[in-house]
Design a protein that fits this description.
The longest helix has about 35 residues. This protein has ten helices and no strands. The chain is mainly alpha-helical and about 220 residues long. Helices cover about 85% and strands about 0% of the residues.
Length: about 220
C-alpha cells in the first residue's frame, strides 16, 4: 500500500489516460453500432453479413490491431489515436448484435400501434423502438466496457501510456505494490464504467421503474 500512497499522482495521471482510451471508443462504438444494427433489422438479407462480419472483428488479436493501425491511419506507433480506433472496432464487434437483439425484441403489437398512431419510421425508431431496446443495448455495452478497460492495458506493449504501464513495469521490476495498483485501478475503473451505464439505463427507461413500482 505504501507504494500506492507514494505514487498517487502517477496512478491518477495514468488512470485518466486509461479513461480516455477506453471510454471514448465506447461512445464512438455505440454511435456507429446503432445505425448498423438498425440497418440489419431493416434489411434482413444484410443481417447475417453485418452480425457475423462485425463479430469476426473481435477475433483479431488486440496487439496485432494496435500495430496495424499506424499503417492504416498513417499515424505514429505511439499515437493514442491508434488505440482509440482499435478499441472502437472491438466495441462495434460486441455491440452490433446487442443493438439488433434489442430492436428485434420490441413487440410487434407495440410497433404496429405506433404506426397506427401516425408515427413515421424515423419517429418510431427514436420514440419507441430505440427506447425499448435500451436494456438489451445497455447489457451489451456493459460487456464492451469491461472488455475495453481490460484490453487497453495491452497498449503498454507499444508504448502508449495508461494503467497497463503499472502492470508491465511492476512485473519487470518485481514491485508488488505497483502491480497491485494496476490491478486495483483497472478493476475500479471497470466498476465505475458499469455503474455509469447502469445509471444511464435507469434514466432512459422510466417505464421500468413504474412497472417495478406497480408490481411491488
Amino acid at each position: 500500500m505504501q507504494w500506492i500512497l507514494d505514487h498517487l499522482d502517477d496512478i491518477t495521471s495514468l488512470g485518466l489516460q486509461h479513461v480516455w482510451l477506453s471510454g471514448l471508443p465506447l461512445i464512438l462504438g455505440l454511435v456507429i453500432s446503432i445505425p448498423v444494427g438498425w440497418l440489419a433489422t431493416r434489411a434482413r438479407w444484410l443481417r447475417g453479413v453485418l452480425i457475423t462480419g462485425s463479430g469476426l472483428l473481435y477475433t483479431i488479436p488486440s496487439l496485432a490491431l494496435f500495430v496495424l493501425m499506424p499503417l492504416v491511419l498513417g499515424t505514429s506507433i505511439l499515437d493514442p489515436l491508434n488505440v482509440v480506433v482499435a478499441m472502437t472496432i472491438y466495441t462495434i464487434a460486441l455491440l452490433v448484435r446487442s443493438v439488433v437483439d434489442g430492436l428485434t425484441s420490441v413487440p410487434d403489437e407495440v410497433a404496429r400501434s405506433a404506426t397506427a398512431m401516425g408515427y413515421t419510421s424515423v419517429r418510431r425508431f427514436f420514440g419507441v423502438d430505440l427506447p425499448l431496446a435500451v436494456p438489451v443495448i445497455a447489457a451489451g455495452l456493459r460487456v464492451a466496457a469491461v472488455s475495453s478497460v481490460s484490453m487497453v492495458s495491452i497498449a503498454s506493449l507499444i508504448g502508449v501510456d495508461q494503467l497497463g504501464d503499472l502492470l508491465i513495469d511492476g512485473f519487470n521490476r518485481e514491485i508488488a505494490g505497483e502491480l497491485l495498483a494496476g490491478i486495483l485501478a483497472s478493476v475500479l475503473l471497470a466498476v465505475v464504467f458499469d455503474l455509469l451505464i447502469r445509471l444511464g439505463e435507469h434514466t432512459l427507461t422510466p417505464w421500468r421503474r413504474a412497472q417495478q413500482g406497480s408490481s411491488a
